[in-house]
Amino acid sequence: MRYFMTGLGVAFGIAVFLFLDYALPSKQTVRIANTYNRQIEIGANGIFFAADDTGTAQNTTGRRDVLFIDVVRPNGKVRVYRNEDTGWVWPPYFKYNSSTLQGRAADLVSNRNDPLWVSVTSYGWRIDWLSVYPNAVSIRQVDGPDARPVNWGAQIVLVVIGLLLVLIWRMWNQFRERTIDPAARSIDQAWDRADARADRARGRIGRWWAGLTGRK
Amino acid sequence: MAALFRLGLVILLIEAIFFVLIWLYMHSTRRRSLEREWDRRHPDRRGHSAERREFVRRAMSGYGGRIRIPLFLLVIVVPFVTISTIIIFVNYR
Fold first, then answer.
1. B87 in contact with chain A, both atoms CB, cutoff 8 A
2. Which residues lie below 8 Å from residue B51, measured CB to CB, with a gap of 6+?
3. In this structure, what are the phi and psi dihedrals at residue A47, rounded to the nearest 5 degrees?
4. Per-residue pLDDT tens for A63-80?
5. Which of chain B's residues have a Cβ under 8 Å away from the Cβ of A53?
6. Is the pLDDT reported for residue A216 higher than 60?
7. In terms of DSSP bridges, do strands A117-123 and A78-82 run parallel, antiparallel, or are they unpaired?
8. B89: CB partners within 8 A, 6+ apart
9. Residue in B3, B24, B32 closest to A53 by CB
10. ipTM of the shown complex
């Protein structure tokens, strides 16, 4: 049983970590190579794309027009971001300036001989075989490939989550102290009283039986 | 537009839950501090008693009314400010 609960706890921790890793923003210093839009098929990987109501046209067969931004990292590897508006509910980025962002990205395109380095803030994963792309949230020009701006968004969100957990923990402690413990104590006391009554009853019956059989 | 309503509904639900939780929590901590105050004032009569319960009951009357408005504002203002800040930082930076 203990191994099961430990396993469950570990699985829960991994799930929470994956969830945060997906939803929290991250910054990468890259060089933008190309910006374009393309129709793609949204199938089983739909969970990694924006919801239907964010304004991008989608025809009946599930093909959607999505804006893309190709970037090259300082180590030469290529990465592809999508640039979609987020829905109003999740993830709570409230991003609706994808066209403006695409324009800004197009303005910052450079080639490898004359690179222009930018910092792209994004969330999500790049999973090649599922055609899943991270969503670029904002782009800002930086000085060089070694610039690493601080990821304020993720830090603030983590601090807020920490504070919420502390608050919930204190609430739970208070609830346990005021409600559960007294209830458990009264249950214990009721059980003790029932036990004592049973003992007395046993004593009475014992004396009656002894009187009946002549023993004193 | 429908998505905006959905957002409003989700936030309203979450804030209602937080309102109730914080309400209960504040009442509970106030009761505990009142009991401690009674024990401090009457060290010879500390512990559970009808008098202490009456003292706490009288001191707590009106507490809910006093904290209702500030708590209400808190659970309305916090998400509003947060969402506005996010929107400004994401879209207009």
1. yes
2. B45
3. -65, -20
4. 888 999 999 999 999 999
5. 2-3
6. no
7. unpaired
8. A153
9. B3
10. 0.82
Over residues B34-88, the pLDDT tens digits come to 999 999 998 888 888 899 999 999 999 999 899 999 999 999 999 999 999 999 9
Query: Considering chain A, what is the average pLDDT of its residues?
Result: 89
Residue A171 contacts B where some CB pair is shorter than 8 Å: yes
Residue ranges of the alpha helices (H) in chain A?
Answer: 2-23, 98-107, 152-175, 181-213
Cα A202 to Cα A19, A118, A188: the distances in Å are 61, 86, 21
Distance from CA of B67 to the nearest CA of A (A): 17
Distance CA A70, CA A146 (A): 19
Extract the tokens encoding A169: 């923990």
Taking CB atoms and an 8 Å cutoff, what residues of chain B touch A175?
A: 24-25, 28
Instruction: Please identify among residues 97-156 of chain A the ones whose CB lies closer than 8 Å to any CB of chain B.
Output: 97, 100, 137-138, 140, 153
Domain over A25-148 is classified CATH 2.160.20: no
CB-based contact B91 A171, cutoff 8 Å? no
Q: Where are the beta strands (DSSP E) in B1-93?
A: none
Q: Where do the structural domains in chain A lie, given as residue ranges?
A: 25-148
Distance from CA of A107 to the nearest CA of B (A): 17
B31 touching chain A per CB within 8 A: yes
What letter represents residue A14's amino acid? I
CA A151, CA A120: separation in Å to the nearest integer? 11
